[in-house]
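Annex B. Sample input.
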Amino acid sequence: MGSLDFDAEKTAFREYYDSNLPTLQGCLNSFKTLIDSLLKALPDIAISSIDGRIKDREECVSKFTRKYRTELESSKTPYTIREKISDIIGLRVVCLYEDDVERIKDAISKEFDVIDVTNKIAQIEGTEASFGYKGLHLDLRLTKTRRGMAEYRLYADHSFELQIRTVVQDSWSIVDHKIKYKKSIPNSLKRRINTLAALFELADREFRSIRDDTSAELAQAEDSYPEIEKESDATDDPKTNTTKKRGSIEPGQYAPLNAFYFLRIAKHFFPEFEFEPHKVDGFTQDIVSLKPDLSRGKFNFYLRNSIGQVKRYQAEFEKNGDTMNPYTVMRHCLYAGDPKVFATILTDSARERFDGWVGSNGK
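Annex B, continued. Sample output.
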């Protein structure tokens, strides 16, 4: 039951806050664990971080004074400070891509009772006077089913605010809060701030576009292996200096090796292995740095022509308890295909051991 006595309500809120702080912290931990579990079950959504905090007691009082007190007292509406501060418990989910914000919102909304939604992205996009992103805010509480569970019963009466942002939105929010003067300032300075905010917005869209275009490139590379085989058939054999005649592709038409083609070729030879993107990217760069004009067909040629020999060597090598992963196998294939160009792709000891085996066992 509220009143219009600010001092009394302030005292009541402080007493509530202090006596319930351990419970509030327990709420935060429990809700954070639940949100984390729910988001991990979502396919293809990359989460950067999930953080939470209990809002400072005096910050709660200041927020009430700033946002609600004048209007409530002018309208003679009794109040309590607690009922107006919906973000005493606050969680923030930071994801990578802007289209994931809505997907996270939809998933979370199915698992909680939604009290209120504040779409600050839409608010900003709907005006010409502001730029930049602020994110999506949901006021939530446990569903009736969860409130009845033993592990959540203690927290049944507590709501919380969930902020959902991309990494770029989160970065802009940090920068925005550090800009001390943004409204009653010279227009020239205001334009610069708006330009900066627009650059953050553009970065968000470009990040998403790069993701989509990368997926398109991977899909295109997935269908390219028959063409790669044709290029391999037409490539020069560096050991015999002859050209395979079955292909009809001119050398100038060969597509250069990149991470997408590398992945497609590697998956052909090692279909059960999980190739991590950052390792694919780095390994491809290592190869291309040694032979900048290497085509995808030539790389496939090296693997196709040498992998049988290298796998026989691998069988002998692993008898002693050592292992060769697919990257190591491919290093040996490249070295076997062109020892002069790819001499440094193996360590000295690995190269000497392979050379010794080849000398003793032949091709």
